[in-house]
Fold this sequence. Notes:
The chain is α+β, with helices and mostly antiparallel strands. It has helices at residues 3-25, 43-55, 68-77, 89-100, 121-134, 136-143, 157-163, 169-183, 191-212, 305-312, 332-335, 343-346, 371-376, and strands at 33-39, 60-66, 104-109, 149-153, 216-221, 224-229, 240-242, 248-250, 258-260, 267-272, 277-279, 282-292, 295-303, 321-326, 352-356, 385-389, 396-400, 406-411, 414-415.
Amino acid sequence: MTADEQRETHERQLEKYAALAVEVGVNVQPGQKLVVMAPLFAADLVRKVVKRAYEIGARYVHVEWNDDAVTRTRYELAPADSFKEYHIPFRARGLEEMAEEGAAFLTVVGNNPDLLAGIDPQRIQDNTKAGNEALKGFRQYMMADKVSWSIVAVPSQEWADKVFPDLPAESRVPALWDAIFKSTRIDRDDPVKAWREHVDNLNKKAARLNEKKYKALHFRAPGTDLTIELPEKHYWYSAESRNAKGHMFIANLPTEEVFTAPLKTGVNGTVSSTKPLSYGGVLIDNFSFTFKDGRIVDFKAEKGYETLKRLIETDEGSRCLGEVALVPHTSPISQSDLIFYNTLFDENASNHLAIGKGYAFCIEGGKEMDEKELAACGLNDSLVHVDFMIGSADMDIDGILPDGTREPVFRGGNWAF
């Protein structure tokens, strides 16, 4: 294939990717507003997203840009106490107002996984906490699926360098694009049809788990022996969600998971990570947690210990879990044998858990409940929601029924049914 043919092929794939994000990811409706948050290097995709959104009837598309270099400069040079403040309150109000109006929200990620390496972890924690507090109202719209939202990825050179260090420098971004397109089924003749078939398969797994209504799940693997109780009213979800107006959307592209919320006080045992976690521009690796009655009572990390420590000290709820997600080892992303250093992809190659806030919709009737009602059902609340990966080919999971009967859910890292 000539260079011109390669460029033409990439352009066609990028157009299909933009259409998938708009029509399947956030599922923009005629007359609806769309907010796009993206890094500068994603401009080519964003322009195609904007064009496609208007073509299918969007009323207005607002694009908000960010830049790694600007972010790094601030962390290096700004006064330490400035990170304890959220300096753009009008942005928080604007996002909340857009959510109230029923706008859709598309986030484009792909930033350097090591962006904030060497930065004082206290600055990162202060800034994250200030932002999460300011955006709490907006995040509640998303965590309760009241609005349509989705996340897609675009490779930066730094991210591609991390994933493909052994390739020639000029080949790394194209290789990461290829991996992204395969993971999101853009390489198929009809990506939308492929996604519909995939969603149907995930829905069948979620339906089986909802029929069973397990009281708890028991995870076993090297370094992991963990029991997670589930709320009485828990509900399993898969790829597809429904917003307050009844429109379907897919929050993550790609996605391979079936997930629910754990009982806040019902997590006991030890769990070990199986993939690195990029959090706040810092890599955390080879870490483990010990839980008692739902709370982290001990933890270890070979890399990123201080950042992990500050994460779980964010607030009362950041020592508890908000999500448990099941992903087979045979998922396409897992079978690629790549570590993406990006949670959007790595969580879809592995069973994973999330520290922090639980999704309201994972409780039956939770979308209509207030915080006190959700807490009474056993849902955790926090300013953070951070996924970390625990799955492997060696993991077995048992489902425990209310009468104590055990049934295989996963064997050898894959579905047992």
